[in-house]
Design the sequence.
């Protein structure tokens, strides 16, 4: 939670202001200072599991003490001096990416990121189990934020895995696929074929757009969202593009503006609605 | 009956003392987990039958009591006869008749049940004369072995809850904090953080409500300090917590204890109920208007849940994973509220400090590590068990005076302190005083008090491998450096122990460890490389021998040595041949024996039984 109190801090020798409660990452992102992250998403509470956003901090009052902290979690404080890149930070990030590459040698995202730090092949023993999951936990957190808690981490240590209860299709899954969309390494997959979405062992029937007939979202998700938001399910049953079109038409008719081009809906004009991609 | 005032507590103590003074003699049978496993309950039953059937309770004015752990577990079941302080070890139900007839009725001492000094081989009669006990100073363990943990009156008779009464009626919360600060008490769970300062920060925190918790999630291999205190003197923990709650202004608290400690859970639960009934816990404690209640939260046994933030998550019903503590838990702890969390031993020290005075505690130990510390002394020492000693005592005194030295007088090699993330210290460090800062400087740590002694037949590379395996299994897996990094460290050590070590492995371990220490999220990860770093620091030669010469001189890593029987030493007794599980030792009686190298699995059975140490590692 941020307050109105202004905090002055220094990042890489430049002076910035932020509000009390913001993290170093919040300020750095706002100012366009690059800090690599894998487990962070602005919509979710930070947890600091990937350790890639490590920065060095010190303070004039700390008697020369400096240390590494995760930018995503460290709350800014008055007079804080932050360094986002130096040899020590690069060494830590290089080792972390080297370790992640040993865990997921096949992950393109990790390969690319590791290469940026000069790691092309891991110097550690490669994982015997084939995976691209880095256990950042974003999928679990987004599912929790959504209010479903359908998936969770199971086990601990090196044997930890993102799991579904009793290895069965999770009963609380609504098929929204937020977990798949947020996954930084593309590990979680789903498949939309015709009117069916397959994810986590489920086959969800899709609700069709009442205007264009294209699939909008799984019926179960629609019911869930209508219940959570209190919105009319019929309102949700219109795909975002048609919904936009409808709004445009309403405005046109209200103000008497004539259409520039004719056409039944934007969908027919060849634009792929967001929900259809 | 509810005790409604300090005055009635004093009179309850007086009554309880008078009640106890009626007995001219008391038989104390240890019923701690170790002695229970050795059958001490059957001993209690036999005493009970013998006493009742012969009316000895009235005739001799004899009392029978089950107590908590005396600490000398390897000699159990233990029986102490007071007031003479006669100490019997390894007592079986069949010995009870003898004890009743000879000792209780005639006042004779039974030689065969006495403890025999490991070094002088002499029988010792008195509890207090046994070297294992003689050098100890018991504060946290003050009542254990003396009182019945299931009887609150026993605790009250031993001045129990007097510290609470004093704190509630004679001291302000600030004065209590001041006393704890002055005593120099530092957290006994491993961190060594000044307790008084922790309490003060929590008291000054603005948010409400506040919580006072007890960490009883003891998980170090070979450690049982907290278990023994919870089993043997649960009221001391409760009293400490109520005093702490008064000091910081908390109304609610939890004891987080692992499910694997069923007896401790049972005793704590019973103690909580008794304390509530007596008005020493819950609403309006001792009629002062102050209220504080404790619930027990049982943990599933994950080592990481001993870490403060993971523990609080677990108490709240979430997955027990630590969080970054850029904001400390004294400000934002359980349910994001200010929380004081102290370890069992710390809580047990608190009532003593209040009753006896902060100065008295501060006078013990060293300047920066005051008071006493409980250790579980295990491994290759003659006397193993639970000990409490003043801080500043040397490792040598603990291992050789209290512990009686190394089993079979073999050479000492190392002592591992501080639990799995502690370190191993060599002989050259034996004269170091045991305190928080000295142990850390030497590359190990105090931890919660585990102390594992190792002899020359322990391989230090293998030891590091063992502890890293423990940490790999117990890492929560949340952050990359700990989950992946410690796993890779362990893989390198596995390779070295297997004989697949490569030059440069040690340097690789060191640089990876550096990053794990710098980048891990919690203390488990940050301290996880300690076992390997401390063994590299003090036993580098063993690593080099493993990697460069493919040799394990301790005879542990099976691919890296063979056994040979020394022709000079072998007496031809044949014990080795009998012990060999694969029948690969040949030789006639009274003639030199020989090991067939091809068949030998290097299990070491021959070496363990050889009376003249003729089985050698080559």
Sequence:
């Amino acid at each position: 939670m941020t307050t109105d109190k202004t905090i002055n801090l220094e990042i890489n020798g430049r002076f910035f202001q932020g509000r009390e409660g913001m993290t170093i990452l919040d300020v750095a992102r706002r100012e366009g200072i690059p800090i690599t992250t894998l487990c962070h998403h602005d919509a979710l509470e930070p947890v600091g599991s990937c350790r890639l956003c490590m920065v060095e901090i010190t303070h004039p009052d700390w008697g020369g003490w400096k240390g590494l902290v995760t930018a995503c979690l460290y709350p800014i404080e008055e007079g804080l001096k932050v360094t986002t890149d130096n040899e020590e930070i690069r060494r830590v990030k290089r080792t972390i990416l080297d370790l992640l590459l040993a865990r997921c040698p096949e992950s393109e995202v990790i390969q690319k990121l590791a290469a940026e730090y000069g790691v092309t092949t891991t110097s550690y023993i490669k994982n015997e189990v084939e995976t691209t999951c880095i256990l950042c936990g974003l999928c679990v957190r987004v599912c929790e934020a959504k209010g479903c808690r359908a998936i969770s981490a199971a086990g601990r240590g090196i044997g930890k895995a993102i799991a579904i209860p009793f290895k069965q299709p999770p009963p609380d899954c609504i098929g929204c696929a937020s977990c798949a969309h947020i996954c930084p390494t593309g590990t979680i997959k789903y498949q939309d074929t015709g009117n069916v979405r397959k994810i986590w062992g489920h086959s969800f029937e899709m609700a069709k757009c009442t205007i264009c007939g294209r699939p909008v979202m799984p019926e179960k998700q629609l019911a869930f969202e209508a219940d959570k938001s209190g919105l009319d399910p019929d309102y949700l049953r219109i795909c975002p593009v048609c919904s936009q079109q409808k709004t445009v038409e309403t405005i046109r008719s209200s103000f008497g503006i004539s259409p520039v081009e004719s056409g039944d809906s934007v969908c027919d004009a060849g634009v792929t609605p967001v929900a259809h991609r | 009956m509810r005790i409604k005032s300090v005055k009635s507590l004093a009179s309850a103590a007086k009554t309880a003392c008078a009640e106890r003074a009626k007995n001219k003699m008391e038989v104390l049978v240890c019923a701690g987990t170790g002695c229970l496993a050795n059958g001490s309950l059957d001993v209690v039953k036999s005493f009970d039958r013998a006493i009742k059937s012969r009316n000895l309770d009235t005739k001799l004015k004899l009392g029978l009591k089950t107590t908590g752990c005396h600490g000398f577990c390897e000699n159990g079941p233990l029986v102490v006869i007071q007031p003479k302080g006669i100490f019997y070890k390894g007592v079986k139900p069949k010995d009870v008749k003898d004890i009743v007839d000879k000792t209780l009725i005639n006042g004779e001492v039974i030689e065969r049940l006495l403890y025999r000094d490991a070094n002088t081989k002499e029988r010792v009669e008195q509890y207090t004369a046994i070297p294992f006990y003689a050098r100890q100073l018991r504060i946290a363990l003050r009542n254990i072995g003396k009182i019945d943990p299931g009887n609150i009156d026993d605790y009250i008779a031993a001045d129990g809850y007097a510290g609470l009464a004093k704190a509630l009626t004679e001291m302000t919360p600030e004065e209590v904090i001041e006393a704890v600060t002055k005593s120099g008490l530092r957290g006994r769970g491993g961190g060594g953080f000044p307790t008084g300062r922790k309490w003060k920060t929590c008291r000054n925190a603005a948010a409400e409500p506040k919580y006072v918790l007890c960490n009883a999630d003891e998980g170090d291999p070979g450690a049982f300090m907290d278990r023994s205190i919870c089993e043997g003197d649960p009221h001391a923990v409760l009293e400490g917590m109520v005093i702490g709650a008064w000091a910081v202004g908390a109304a609610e608290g939890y004891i987080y204890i692992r499910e694997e400690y069923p007896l401790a859970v049972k005793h704590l639960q019973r103690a909580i109920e008794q304390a509530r009934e007596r008005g020493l816990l819950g609403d309006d404690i001792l009629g002062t208007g102050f209220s504080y209640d404790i619930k027990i939260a049982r943990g599933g046994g994950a080592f990481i849940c001993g870490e403060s933030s993971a523990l609080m998550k677990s108490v709240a019903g979430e997955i027990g994973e630590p969080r970054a503590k850029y904001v400390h838990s004294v400000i934002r702890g359980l349910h994001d509220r200010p929380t004081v969390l102290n370890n069992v031993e710390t809580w047990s020290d608190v009532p003593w400090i209040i009753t006896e005075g902060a100065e008295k505690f501060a006078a013990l130990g060293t300047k920066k590590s005051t008071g006493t510390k409980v250790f579980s002394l295990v491994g290759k020492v003659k006397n193993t068990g639970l000990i409490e000693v003043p801080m500043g005592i040397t490792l040598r005194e603990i291992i050789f005076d209290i512990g009686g030295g190394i089993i079979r007088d073999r050479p000492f090699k190392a002592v591992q302190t501080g639990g799995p993330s502690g370190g191993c210290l060599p002989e050259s460090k034996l004269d170091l005083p045991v305190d928080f800062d000295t142990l850390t400087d030497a590359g190990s740590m105090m931890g919660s008090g585990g102390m594992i002694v190792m002899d020359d037949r322990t391989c230090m590379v293998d030891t590091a491998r063992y502890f890293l395996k423990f940490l790999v299994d117990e890492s929560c897996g949340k952050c990359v450096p700990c989950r992946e990094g410690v796993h890779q460290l362990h893989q390198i050590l596995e390779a070295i122990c297997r004989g697949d070590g490569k030059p440069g492995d040690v340097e690789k371990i060191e640089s990876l460890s550096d990053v794990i220490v710098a980048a891990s999220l919690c203390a488990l990860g940050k301290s996880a490389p300690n076992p390997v770093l401390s063994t590299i620091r003090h036993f580098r030669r063993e690593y080099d021998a493993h990697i460069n010469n493919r040799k394990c001189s301790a005879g542990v890593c099976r691919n890296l040595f063979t056994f040979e029987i020394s022709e000079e030493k072998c007496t031809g007794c044949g014990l080795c041949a009998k012990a060999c599980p694969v029948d690969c030792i040949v030789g006639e009686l009274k003639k030199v024996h020989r090991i067939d190298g091809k068949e030998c699995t290097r299990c070491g059975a021959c070496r363990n039984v050889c009376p003249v140490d003729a089985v050698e590692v080559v």
Notes: The longest helix of chain B spans residues 480-498.
